[in-house]
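Team,

Forwarding the record for the chain on the shared tracking sheet. I've put the sequence and predicted structure together so nobody has to dig through attachments.
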Amino acid sequence: MNGQRRVVVVDDHDMFRAGVRSEIGSSVEIVGEGSDVDTAVKAIVGTEPDVVLLDVHLPGGGGTEVMKQVHQRHPDIKFLALSVSDAAEDVIGVIRAGARGYVTKNISGTELVDAIGRVADGDAVFSPRLAGFVLDAFSGAIDIASVDEDLDRLSQREREVLRLIARGYAYKEVARELFISVKTVETHVSSVLRKLQLSNRHELTRWATDRRLV
């Protein structure tokens, strides 16, 4: 053993996992990878790492399902969420499921290595903006139950479209960001408006802002 933290990287994008390996591979020991719930659980249970870098949105049930399955067998394995999403319900959802921290993907390699070490030592680590979501949730400032109930009506792709639209993206920009057609964006927006019983994009933006999803 070289004394480095043993890490499993879980993300459904091959290029992102390769980037993480390249960025921090000399500072930690990456002992496994996963691209969906099944491969992630297999890699984690098989290697028992110090820390799992876990994307929130994964095929097969998401990051929370990975934690649920792993913690049934290995309750002491620590998870650090590493996600492009900075939405309140994502942050709070994975913390409630057992993650020890949550950082966004614009974090530097040096900061990520530091976060891994701190989580391995038992600390909780959050990107500064995200810590406020957790404090608000525990103080009751965010009604998590109602947010979860509303969002449960939406598919994962619909949630992604919702956030981008609420942030002011044009349909064409949403399409480019998510690698889908403008027509598909329009279809998703119509579905979101229908499911949330909203009339237009302005109401959608206000709905998302009120719930701190953007």
